[in-house]
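Need a sequence for this fold. Nothing fancy.
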């Protein structure tokens, strides 16, 4: 046997079995694709998976599928089982993919196999295409070597949970030791960040809507470029459900940062603090609507000033269950962080196996600059600094000291980066360099460098974010929170509010096309979208 198809289905969700592709489901389409490239298919699953019965009903009549199950899959185990399967079936190489990618392309796969063989590659992959259109290929001998490395010199990476980049993430630890070939797309779709798989509602709906639109427009699904181009122009593919919710639970600040909206004397909310009962209602809607999302408690204010902050944080964590992943993000000045607070949140997160990320505003390497930027006492710098190791002790590798890059502190950028990037630093090498945001000219222009792409991309925040103010008001845009709102989530409901975003995106896509073709007066004073410098930034 020359090739063996290996499919990972350990994280299959119920969406992978919804028959929305001409009476086929994503999992079924993957099996149909796999059968064209190998006589034998090896399927990796998790023991006692919630979708075990659905998998069994589909594969029970297919004797060409071998199932290998484990309770917990690490990258090392994943690679080791690939190596073992290749040896068992005496196959030269493995064609590897996740089992929930309904648009795996036969043409791209064939080209990848041909290239892999022609250049005697050890590992081959496609680059520039949206995720989910092409598999990876790894040689038997290479899989064996990589398996050993993942248990020894690359053990740190090998012990991590398997993910969609498992093979390459381990291989890049010793990348110069392998012959790698890349099938490069004629058009680079990476900036659009499409992920055509069915593990989450947001990506499943993108697949479902793309398939329907391709049928309506009679687009050939076998043409990867036609399919990708269609996705890049279809609003219901680009925008499905929100993935990031930025919620204002406090409109108060400890510091009057030079880059905070408080510095303008404006506040987009009519309330100092969001009521916990309102937050519970909003969170319930988020859970039911998006299923998986990141919830930040940090819009326009210092969240820890809310007297019930701990309850807010724990409520987010408690939403997590087998079918819902709601990750928590907290952006803070760090002044109110304490051991008791951190330990309680960490304990709850551990019990639910949920990720919590912290961002602490530092913006400098010394107390003098900090006091200047934050309009505060120099003593507060030490308090903010102390929050980093305290949090890191409970949230390892999920604590990010942040440097807001401005003209004012540009001369400290390199020192900040060099210090915090070291693995011996209090954050263990984690940090964020944040670009300055003038909020469409509401704040002074302190931007030290123009990082915007040559061609304007459709706004990420309009496609995937929702900001919710303390009184429940939802602005269409974080930048225009004062003036342009979609309604109130407490009185109208999340689906009604999000539906209004769809029309705004359609208009926005027309604007972007005109802007890139120089048909639009984008820089006029009244065109806030045209002067915005945040459309290309991407949240957690």
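Here you go.
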């Amino acid at each position: 046997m020359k090739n063996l198809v290996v499919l990972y289905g350990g994280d299959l969700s119920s969406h992978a079995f919804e028959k929305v592709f001409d009476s086929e489901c994503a999992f079924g389409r993957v099996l149909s694709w796999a059968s064209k490239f190998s006589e034998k298919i090896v399927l990796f699953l998790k023991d006692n998976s919630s979708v075990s019965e659905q998998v069994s009903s589909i594969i029970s009549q297919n004797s060409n599928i071998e199932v290998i199950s484990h309770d917990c899959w690490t990258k090392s185990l994943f690679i080791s089982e690939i190596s073992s399967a290749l040896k068992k079936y005496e196959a030269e190489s493995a064609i590897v993919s996740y089992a929930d990618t309904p648009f795996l392309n036969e043409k791209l796969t064939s080209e990848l196999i041909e290239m892999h063989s022609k250049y005697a590659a050890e590992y081959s992959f496609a680059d520039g295409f949206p995720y989910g259109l092409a598999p990876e290929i790894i040689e038997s001998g290479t899989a064996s070597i990589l398996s050993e490395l993942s248990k020894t010199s690359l053990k740190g990476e090998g012990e991590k949970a398997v993910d969609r980049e498992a093979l390459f993430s381990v291989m890049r630890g010793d990348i110069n030791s392998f012959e790698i070939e890349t099938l490069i797309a004629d058009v680079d779709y990476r900036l659009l960040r499409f992920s055509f798989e069915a593990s989450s509602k947001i990506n499943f709906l993108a697949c479902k809507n793309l398939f329907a639109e391709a049928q309506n427009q009679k687009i050939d699904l076998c043409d990867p470029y036609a399919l990708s181009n269609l996705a890049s122009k279809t609003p219901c593919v680009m925008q499905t459900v929100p993935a990031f919710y930025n919620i204002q639970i406090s409109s108060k600040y400890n510091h009057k940062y030079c880059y905070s909206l408080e510095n303008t004397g404006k506040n987009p909310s009519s309330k100092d603090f969001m009521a916990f009962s309102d937050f519970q209602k909003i969170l319930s809607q988020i859970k039911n609507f998006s299923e998986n999302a990141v919830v930040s408690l940090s819009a326009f204010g210092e969240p820890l000033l809310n007297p019930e902050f701990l309850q807010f944080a724990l409520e987010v964590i408690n939403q997590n269950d087998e079918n819902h992943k709601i990750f928590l993000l907290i952006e803070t000045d760090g002044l109110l962080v304490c051991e008791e607070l951190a330990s309680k949140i960490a304990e709850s997160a551990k019990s639910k196996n949920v990720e919590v990320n912290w961002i602490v505003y530092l913006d400098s390497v010394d107390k003098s600059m900090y006091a200047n930027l934050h309009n505060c006492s120099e003593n507060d710098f030490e308090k903010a600094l102390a929050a980093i190791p305290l949090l890191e002790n409970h949230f390892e590798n999920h604590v990010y000291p942040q440097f807001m890059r401005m003209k004012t502190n540009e001369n400290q950028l390199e020192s900040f980066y060099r210090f915090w990037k070291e693995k011996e630093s209090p954050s263990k090498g984690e940090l964020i360099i944040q670009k300055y945001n003038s909020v469409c000219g509401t704040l002074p222009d302190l931007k030290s460098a123009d990082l915007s792409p040559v061609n304007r991309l459709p706004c990420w925040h309009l496609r995937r974010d929702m900001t919710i103010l303390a009184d429940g008001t939802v602005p269409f845009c974080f930048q225009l929170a004062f003036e342009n709102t979609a309604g109130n989530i407490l009185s109208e409901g999340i689906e009604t509010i999000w539906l209004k975003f769809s029309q705004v995106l359609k208009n926005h896509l027309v604007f972007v096309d005109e802007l890139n073709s120089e048909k639009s007066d984008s820089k006029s004073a009244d065109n806030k979208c045209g002067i915005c410098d945040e459309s290309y930034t991407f949240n957690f």
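For context: The two ends are 43 Å apart (CA to CA).
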